[in-house]
Amino acid sequence: MQEENVFAALASTPRRKILAYLSEASLTAGEIAERFEMTKPSLSKHLRILEHAGLVKSEKRGQFVHYSLADDNMLGKLHDFVAAFCPVGGPLKKESAALAKARKRTAT
């Protein structure tokens, strides 16, 4: 992970919002797209930049690609902590937590 890639990734508001949405639950590209008014190619570009910076990881499950935070790096943990206090990231983080909780209930 190069610091310049991380700072470039974090410089974008949509990418910071994506990170907040992924803070508690993994989401498919389609689930992320539902939360934004942008084209799918634009969303793909944002996700690629986040992956290249080492902030997000992807995993193919069946026909879908699931995205989640790459928590194995310190910057991911720092962003997760700061998002709770961010006026934009806080509500998105809460939505992500509610989604994760709903998924757990459905799985059991």
UniProtKB/TrEMBL annotation:
Pfam families: HTH_5
CDD domains linked to this entry: HTH_ARSR
Record-linked SUPFAM superfamilies: Winged helix' DNA-binding domain (SSF46785)
Protein name (record): Metalloregulator ArsR/SmtB family transcription factor
Gene3D superfamilies, A to Z: Winged helix-like DNA-binding domain superfamily/Winged helix DNA-binding domain (1.10.10.10)
Presence of the UniProt keyword ATP-binding in the record: no
Lineage summary: Bacteria, Pseudomonadati, Pseudomonadota, Betaproteobacteria, Burkholderiales
Record keywords: DNA-binding, Transcription, Transcription regulation
Residue ranges constituting the HTH arsR-type domain according to the UniProt record: 1-89
